[in-house]
Amino acid sequence: MMIDLINKIKDFKLTRRSFIGWTSAAAATVAVPVSRGLVAKAEVNIGAEATNGEGVWKTAACWHNCGSRCLNKVLVKDGVVIRQKTDDTHQDSPDFPQQRGCLRGRSQRHQVFNADRLKYPMKRKHWQPGGGKKELRGKDQWVRISWEEAIDHIASETKRISSKYGNESIWVSGGGDIKNAMATVGGYTSSDGTISWGAWLYTYEMLGVGEGLYVQGINDRVDLRNSQLIVLWGANPAWSTMGSATYNYLQAKKAGARFITIDPLYTDSANVFGAEWVPIRPGTDHALALGIMHTLLEEDDPITNPLVKWDFLNKYTVGFDADHMPAGVDKKENFKDYILGTYDKQPKTAEWASEICGINASTIRYLAREIGGTERVALLTGWAPARINNGEGWVQAFSTLGMMTGHMGSSGNMTGVSCWEYAGNNGPALLTPGGSGLPAIPNAITNVINENQIFDAVLKGKYLQKGEGERNVNIQFIYHGYNAVLQTRSNIMRGIEAHRKVEFIVTNAYALTTTAKYSDIVLPVTTEWEREGAVRDGNREILIAWSKIVEPLYEAKSDQEIAKLLIKKLGKNPEEIYPINEKQQFFNQLAGSTVVKENGKDFEPLCTITAKDIQEWGVKGTPQQGRIGLQEFLDAGIYQVPRKKGDNLGFIAYKDFIDDPVKNPVSSESGKFEIYCKAMNEASKKAFTEIAPIPKYEPRTEGYESTFSDWKKKKKGKYPFQVFNPHYLRRSHSTFDNVPQLREAWPNPVYLSRADADEKGIKTGDTVMLSNEYGKTLRPALVVETLMPGTIALPHGSWVDLDEKDEVDRAGADNMLVGFVPTGLGTSGYNTARCNLEKWDGKPLEEDYKWDQRIIKF
């Protein structure tokens, strides 16, 4: 047995000492590949020596789309990855916080060296050109093939399908490198959607506000300490934004801020911040905002009780009242009269809102008084409340509440999105990474399918091209790059049906993901630990640089290498698309990185680069003077700009506009904040459903009102429960869900309220089934006192584990229950789903960390 093991790893030429280290590390890690385990061969000259000769600490990629960018270090000793740690590059302090990683980042080696890593190119046993037995996708056996065979098959099918159906028949999801390859031979159909942003993505420019990432709409973290009241509305940074976000909020609490959290679930953030919890039904935040604003109007007195900031509304907004409507529109359509019910005879009172959102009227009035009557308020929302059908009106209503109370554009006052890497810390980046130096490759095909429609487009052959109208399309080839579309988009069962219709499917993957499972050919792709390296921004104050930790495992190749092979096989010159290698691209990112100067306006190169550096790297470049040496940056793996109160690096959102709205207009047509937004109304007429120009409330498609068969009599219907999908510490979206250690630490139950569980006779640990017209899924129940009754919290991103016979998913995949309903401008309604709940009468679920991994054996 030992001889066999030594033969398997002899290509690494290990010393006895490193072999012993490798086997010890393998034993500790449990699930590692046998033949290429933890051996590290790359970039031995980068890193910092550990104490006591333990090895070298190197910065390793923590590359996932979690909304954080933290420092991840691995200890390499005798060519072996021993363990991980996070940021200890400087002393931790509120002004200069360490960029600490979370449990996901700290388990990265369990992902990179997981036993389920795909080793070789493979194809379905019953695949043939044209599809073969397409109904066996997801169930078929896998056959190992060579890279040459794989690329031959893909190139041949690309030529055949594009020749027969046109390049419009090729849909590429994710995968920039694969898009480059397909662009060289005529192009491809693409898809897009609101994904994380929800309704913010398509509305912000027309309304004149920020959406939280591209355009920042709240102040920076130092100014957050000036807020007296912080309202977290559908935001849970303790779960959804790792790194320094929670720490930054705690500094505001230490400075005296009070917290209110509005959320269906009492979150860990609410617990940490000692927040008042206001439980709300999913997708009804719009109604609550209207009820608050009615109370503000009802109780406002400019002298004795000034709750409404009329000067702000009159100077900076359009459409609040009849006197400030745009020219050429009906003045009766103003927002104030809508709130008061002047013309529709339905005042949007606290009582009216209470019936919808589930918050009693007295609490709604309390919120109005707190928000309107406090001098400095941070109204902070996550993207989650806008990930609903018909969500555009919520974005407009939330923004209008901030305008109405004047909590925008001044110190301690802010209204906007607070999430992802900019949670509680908006503002322009203080450091920027350089570009790779690769040319942009245009796509000749103009098809862009909204992701609510993509599976229907495959099955029905038509879709709505936003801004234009209906188009025909005949998708016959799907290529999935770095994406998890079948897993993370609406209506998984509909997606599986679509994947069993087309003639050819290819996926690049590091493990047998859901998209890979339903493919014909799967190509093993490297992780970032196996690539040359990259420079990545995180929050506005940091840049992180990582380099290669291990050589590619087994026969894995990078997406770029795969694209080059395919381009060449398709008869094109890959050097035209990739004129420089991946190491040169990494160097270009380093050389082009910049850092802000102390004046807060100008930038200088971050890295000093010498002629010797360029020679040692074996790349092309020009020596330059920067803030720190290239080697120093690489060894530390991070550069962080220190902050302090009163520096030149602070940010107050919209301050320039507030100071001079004429010289510094916002992005809307009028140049002001648009409470009446004609542009959004007009755009919606060429999209899916019409949106009113003011934020009028309408029942959400598949929202709370749809849980009733008779709304007026409050008679519940077939699907009486609402389902929402909190981001979960075990996963970054769906990534990491295959790591057994994280599965054990965070077991992925479905959260049920005590009231609902008692009514159904369910206790913690019971297996329950959630079902609706889209699908069925199982999970063990976790009964809690901290969840709005009538709602179910099903964590986002679990990998589908489908019983094909009864079409029941065992894993709690949230998108089994989410419909594919395009509304408004095309927002995806992930948090507007409803279902039935019942105790499962079949075999109880075993803890999923005990389940067999998706390990392919040939």
Measured as a percent range, the helix fraction is 25-40%
What structural class do the secondary elements suggest?
Answer: alpha/beta
What's the N-to-C terminus distance? 20 Å
Strand content: 15-25%
Q: What is the alpha-carbon Rg in Å?
A: 27 Å
Looking at how many chains there are and whether they match, the oligomeric state comes to: single chain
Query: Mean pLDDT score, rounded?
Result: 93
Poorly predicted runs of 5 or more residues: 1-38
Strand order of the largest sheet: 6-5-21-20-19-7
Tell how many strands the DSSP assignment holds.
39
Largest sheet: 6 strands, mixed
Please provide a written account of the structure.
The two termini are 20 Å apart. This protein has a 6-stranded mixed sheet. A 6-stranded mixed barrel has the order 32-36-33-35-34-39. A hairpin with a 4-residue loop joins strand 22 (533-537) and strand 23 (542-547). The model is unreliable at 1-38 (pLDDT under 50). It contains 30 helices and 39 strands. With 858 residues, it is α/β, with parallel strands linked by helices.
Could you give a quick summary of the protein structure above?
The chain has 858 residues and is of the alpha/beta class. The protein contains 30 helices and 39 strands.
